Amino acid sequence: MDMQPFLDTFFEESFEGLDIMEQALLALEPGVAPDRETLDAVFRAAHSIKGGSGTFGLPAVAGYTHDVETLLDRLREGETTLGEEVRGALLESVDVTRGLLAALRDGVEPDAAAVAASTARLQALLGASSGATDAPGTAMPAAAADAESADGPGWRVRFAPQPHLFTTGNDPARLIRDLEALGPVAAECDSSALPPWSELDPEACHLQWTLTVHGGSEAAIRDILEWVEDDAEIAIEPLPGAAEEPPAGPAVEPAPAGTAGEPATERAAPPARGGSSVRVQTEKIDALIDLVGELVITQSMLLDTARGCDEVTARRLRDGLAQLERNTRELQEGVMRIRMVPIQFAYARLPRLVHDTAGQLGKDIHLDLAGEQTEVDKTVSERLTDPLVHLLRNAVDHGIEPPEARRAAGKPEQGTIRVAAEHRGGNVVIEIVDDGKGLDRERILARARAQGLPGAEREDLDDAAVFDFIFEPGFSTHEEVTEVSGRGVGMDVVRRNIRELGGSLQVASTPGEGSRFIISLPLTLTIVDGQLLRVGEEIYVVPLPAVLESLQVNPEQLRDVAGQGRVCAWRDGYVPVVGLDRLFGLERRPDEHGRTLMMVLESEDARVGVLVDELLEQQQVVVKSLEANYAPVPGSMGATILGDGRVALILDVAGLLALSRERPAIPLAAG
């Protein structure tokens, strides 16, 4: 049997378990009695990794996690208190286990020095709690300690695996050997379910056992069998004369009367738990989405072809295409839902990052996460992690002041960083807000001028334009780069990564009160509902959620503002106006009265008017990456293929605003 698929699943589940361990450990307060449920979640994750490692023959992981499991068990039993040292060692064990598993998965040598150092730290803590340090590789299992302290003659365990047990990678013999660590075990095998030799399936488990365990506690037995509790019938009862023990967890129903002697194949399978799921490789879903995208393009091409047919044929074709569009949209939405995941997966590394970095810098920082259940495309979630980590690290290092500085400024010693996500229109918006000292406008401007950055010499720059300099490659206001970060160092990469996702990154800051970074991202990277428009001979696409209004404007409604470009009166105020003809070097054609169309677009707090010649139809478009297929084009979030085969740019509102600042419109008198 090819074990690689099972091994891949084990690695994937183990990494998820480590994430759970990390988050649960960070939720525990040192010096405070740990929440039992949270502690149990950490223990289960470690226990599962240890058990799976033993099953798949990974002794390095199994041996290392044994000490982790033992320390966690002593915490559960109250033999060790959760101080900062213990929590730090357990958090370190998460990193070491993650490294061990990654090395085994990738076929490289693990970091032996890190494993040895962490093992020594764990065993020192175990020795401190027990009065004696366990020798490496021979540490007494926690369950054995239970055996020594158990009262009474022991337990009778009914263990009836489901036929599919072997396919889950579990071995009954290994489980029975683990039970022997609690005390002597007598096993009575029930082979009545064995089929005739000619019908024997060697990959099915046909045996059941009644085990007599002379030692240990019910909780210790449950811990050992927890790995297979969903794949076997398990009943535990004290032997006559044994001391009663209060149940440590949910009661296990005894085997139904009359089932002991029934063939296993005739027993009903255990009920599914809360809906079933299946793991699918991301590449397979990506391929499916690519096909849906091609279907959208083909549909657009057929619709374009229908315009050249006679009326009868065109009507029949349009009816068929309308049905195809409905089916395509349902298919697209269904596939997209498969890829949507809560953004909490992108949040996973943040608590640990703030905890470690703040501790390293001697700062007290509270991290407030909100909107964890906000859903976003899986690719967006995965590629968002690095920008978030970079922004958080900067906020901890340079945003939040040291405690003494905060006291002097009349602030609480504990700083706060809030990361919040929510859906707004067709986008997901993530805000990273700190209550630190804020950006130093004058220092940023002086540095930009010293570096000769374009536009820095202007005297009329607003805050947004000044703060935009921190996203220039290599820009930093800090003479010394710390080990943690440098505000500005790598921020160009952060913005580039966000833009590659079709999003935007803006910053606002108030001296003494803090900074706010706003990331706006599309919910999906592949297909959007778009409004087509024409400027000159070129066709562009605007995402529909960004369109606020379209109106016809006269030349006298447009005003030049000295050094600020052009604005247009709109509703009760003014909006800056962008001429695509100016930005992209096109020839625009207003009507005979000089009137023109203006689309008012919105991105976050910014609104902009875009002058166009003609509004065309609305349709779904497939987003193609310009970076991957051509080169980045400022002011666009990608391109698409139209029904007639032409390529059209998909406009990015925030990018247009930034571009208009770099290329101010020519005054009306000159235009």
Would you summarize the structure shown here?
With 671 residues, the chain is of the alpha+beta class.
Commentary on this structure:
Residues 527-662 form the CheW-like domain. Residues 314-525 form the Histidine kinase domain. This protein is α+β, with helices and mostly antiparallel strands and 671 residues long. The protein folds into four domains: 3-124, HPT domain (Four Helix Bundle (Hemerythrin (Met), subunit A)), CATH 1.20.120.160; 154-194 and 202-238, Alpha-Beta Plaits (2-Layer Sandwich), CATH 3.30.70; 283-476 and 489-525, Histidine kinase-like ATPase, C-terminal domain (Heat Shock Protein 90, 2-Layer Sandwich), CATH 3.30.565.10; 527-662, OB fold (Dihydrolipoamide Acetyltransferase, E2P). The chain is flat and about 100 Å long. The N and C termini lie far apart (75 Å). Residues 131-151, 243-275 and 665-671 have low confidence and may be disordered.
Largest sheet: 6 strands, mixed
How far apart are the first and last residues' alpha carbons, in Å?
A: 75 Å
Strand content: 15-25%
Number of domains: 4
Task: Specify the CATH architecture of the largest domain.
Answer: 2-Layer Sandwich
User: Number of helix segments?
Assistant: 20
Structural class: alpha+beta
Bulk shape:
flat
CATH class of the largest domain: Alpha Beta
Query: Which topology of the largest domain does CATH recognise?
Result: Heat Shock Protein 90
Mean pLDDT: 78
Lateral arrangement of strands in the main beta sheet: 14-18-19-17-16-15
CATH homolog superfamily of the largest domain: Histidine kinase-like ATPase, C-terminal domain
Oligomer: single chain
Poorly predicted sequence stretches spanning 5 or more consecutive residues: 131-151, 243-275, 665-671
Number of strands: 22
Nearest-angstrom radius of gyration? 32 Å
Residue share in helices?
40-55%
Domain Histidine kinase: 314-525
Domain CheW-like: 527-662
Domain HPt: 1-104
EC number: 2.7.13.3
